[in-house]
Task: structure prediction
Amino acid sequence: MERQSVLKVFSRYAPLVAWLVFISLASSDSFSAANTSRVIGPLVLWLFPNTTPHQLETIHLVVRKLAHFTEYAVLGILAARTFSTSPGPTIRRRWFWISLGIVVAYALVDEYHQSFVPSRTASIFDSFIDMTGGLVALGIINWRYRRNRSSN
Result:
């Protein structure tokens, strides 16, 4: 019985922890603008050969900002999954606020971490994009949860 509960806890928390590790890795030099442009640029030019350098720069910026939004939306989803299924009633009731707290805290810590990576720049603007991604995902989950509860 105890082994089963350890497995349940692991299966609930492991995806969240793994995603937090991924976000930290994505804040390294490997995912700097210079490195992502080596992938995004050729792909865009292959799909749209007449793209101007200015358009390419704009597309690269938009893709990077969408990546910020998306990675934190996934964080919000995984945090909601983790805390809304908690066996602890207090955590389960407050899953939204706990999840949002993790999204906000990690968005700020992530940008702070980037301030120490020479090829990266820290930006509060990026933190706001991150937080927005997490908040949108959590808002949709909360809306669906409330809608399903009211229809039952």
Observations:
- Residues 2-151 form one domain.
- The chain has a mean pLDDT of 90.
- The helical segments are 2-26, 33-47, 53-84, 89-93, 95-114, 124-151.
- The chain has one domain: 2-151.
